[in-house]
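Hi U.,

Before I forget, here's the chain from the pilot set. I'm dumping it here mostly so it's searchable later in email.
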Amino acid sequence: MLATVAPEDRWFVGLRFSTARGAVRSHYYVVGEADDAEDAVRTAMHRAADAHECAARENAVIDGVEVRRLRWNPLGWAYLTASDRDAGASLHLGPGAGTAWSA
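Structure:
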């Protein structure tokens, strides 16, 4: 029987956008190189600033953030930790960013 090693925990960051036409879009990013939730959000926002990403969401402004940990159990099954509404609100996200929301 082969032993499996679970990958390192990662951050799962959802950014919510409202377009000028009133549509709500969510883009999700898996961030493995962050030390904490604030760093993960900063990395996801940097990725969202890419020209292709901006075009895909019709240049909409971020109006919500959801941050969860992406973890693996000993059997190798991936799961997301529960969303913490208050944790997102305490992040210093800068202008144009809102508070966390629950999925």
